[in-house]
Amino acid sequence: MRLKDERKPEAITKTIIKLINNIGFANISMSKIAKETGLSPATLYIYYESKDDMLRKTYMSIKRQMSQECLSNINISDDIKDIVFQLCRNLLAYMETHADEFLFLEQAANSPLVTDDMIQQLEENNQDIIRAFRKGIETGYLKNESPTLLLAFCYYPIQQIFKETRKEKSMLPGIDFNKVFQMCWDAIKA
Amino acid sequence: MRLKDERKPEAITKTIIKLINNIGFANISMSKIAKETGLSPATLYIYYESKDDMLRKTYMSIKRQMSQECLSNINISDDIKDIVFQLCRNLLAYMETHADEFLFLEQAANSPLVTDDMIQQLEENNQDIIRAFRKGIETGYLKNESPTLLLAFCYYPIQQIFKETRKEKSMLPGIDFNKVFQMCWDAIKA
Amino acid sequence: MRLKDERKPEAITKTIIKLINNIGFANISMSKIAKETGLSPATLYIYYESKDDMLRKTYMSIKRQMSQECLSNINISDDIKDIVFQLCRNLLAYMETHADEFLFLEQAANSPLVTDDMIQQLEENNQDIIRAFRKGIETGYLKNESPTLLLAFCYYPIQQIFKETRKEKSMLPGIDFNKVFQMCWDAIKA
Amino acid sequence: MRLKDERKPEAITKTIIKLINNIGFANISMSKIAKETGLSPATLYIYYESKDDMLRKTYMSIKRQMSQECLSNINISDDIKDIVFQLCRNLLAYMETHADEFLFLEQAANSPLVTDDMIQQLEENNQDIIRAFRKGIETGYLKNESPTLLLAFCYYPIQQIFKETRKEKSMLPGIDFNKVFQMCWDAIKA
DNA sequence: CATGAATGAGTGTTCATTCAT
DNA sequence: TATGAATGAACACTCATTCAT
Asked: Which of A60, A120, C55, C182 is deepest in the core (most CB within 10 A)?
């Protein structure tokens, strides 16, 4: 009995990310993915139940990987300001080194593919950082708002601004992201 | 020979927005749009060159309308702080009254459909507000950063947070957007 | 606006009957039907909602035609014996001149495609003959059984025996169908 | 190296009969049969050369079993009338206790799957009964027709009428099959 | 013997677009 | 201008069968 080739899902994932960035979320098809990966369309269905299942699992996997990298070099007992800046740096670093993955996430996130259920599952990855933010609020360093909202004020602007800087005729060329991080901090600090 | 019926493009636009929110950007088709609007597929090609052309023109039209509504009740000579808060209120008001239109924009914006060229064209709608921000910088009320960046810090967080609040199992339920506006202001003020 | 070509459904029907007799009910496909008829697969969907719809409508149409031809030269006021023998002759004549159509019906009738609802609709075509049989019962010429059962004893044996005679290595070669008709009559007569 | 497990073909046969009655002859597939039986698709090919081979062998097996059961409690030296009525009762009994098997046979019999060669092989199962019928002709109890034809007049009407009574909205509800047997006898008796 | 992996060819159906009226 | 008819190409997915273990 032949065993599942664990390099195949990896190759499929890479193809998906590549194709979505080249031709767009709306234009990927199973046959394009199969051909680009060098597989038969039928083989995709050994690893995934359906196209939706494939895209959802790919989304979950990439998103989890991104969340994890955002927590690098962060010690929950550090000063909240250090945590916030490190978080911002990590996010930027991930987007810079995994631009295609990130842009895949952005396309998928705005589609009906990503369900509330998936988001809730992913939310668990943020629990540590949410706890740190809550402590920051209690110790008076951060505004007395929902920690999720404060966190959103770090992630969202940086992500959207990053996307803008990636465009060929960007309206925000040569931005110094340290300034952006500072603005995030100003938004959430007490 | 009848003249082009200008109510048809309007009806088509409405259908597109409705369908995209119901079945997603990736699943709309010319025949679905035609059937839902009560037209023949062939008729769509009288008003638009192709599917892409149709979606692009629709995007441009909606985006322009949104930009315009964001400038309501704003007087360039007002205090920059008043301008910023009014801008934020206008944006929120538009998203709340035109949720489908806004969510269409978000789906389209992340797709390869929207070209740099289109973005540059749309950028012109912001010139007045950019000028006001520049004055705010010069008079020392705002941080000395690119006005576009400052503006981004108003739009992006509010838009993304709004999307989050729309979800059924939102992680940010019952948010007071006035607090959000204040955070935007804190981020960009000098 | 182009008009529907009424020769197309006829051509499609002919292809279906031909193909089903050549390759069997289980092996026909939309693309085979399309190619054999000289059409695009998509065109089939202008005339029929789905494959099932196509096969069902074809079945109904052929079955109705057969029922009609079975009533040729039958006068309801004739002697019931004459009616029965004419019915038998008509059935045989139809099967002989429309062998492919008849064999299509037999394949379809044993598939789950043909619903009770369809059968009920078709049953209406037999009302006149059923009435004649009822009169035959009342006047004592026929057995006092359900007219439908008596009718079945005419149709079924002849149909099944006809199918047997059609086989290359038939076990019933050179049958005289007049004898078969007589046996049918013996079965149902009082 | 294990030996072929003879319970597997039995299990496969049961699955085939079940599936064909549930989803129809045209919709069964090797993988569905494998999954439903709890086997790998590849395993089916240990027991059968191909899908067609599998269906043919299954048809032959079931058909033989049915023929055998039709001969229960029949003594060739009995009166031909007793033989005929017992044959009819046996046929009905088989169809009632093995409805799925019988309906499988009917679906298969009308498909091109069943070849003349197979029919000839199966015909041997009827030799005893054919001989009895021939004696019935010689002794003047039966019509002077081909014994096969006389036999057909027993089998066919009962089978077709049985199928009709099985339908949900049957046109022949609550039939007394003893009357049907009598009609068969009337058809073939001298 | 038995199997899950693998596949090219096929399935029914819909696509964006053009044609003929 | 407006349309239903028409289509080749593509869609997501399944097929019967074979391979490698």
From this structure: C55
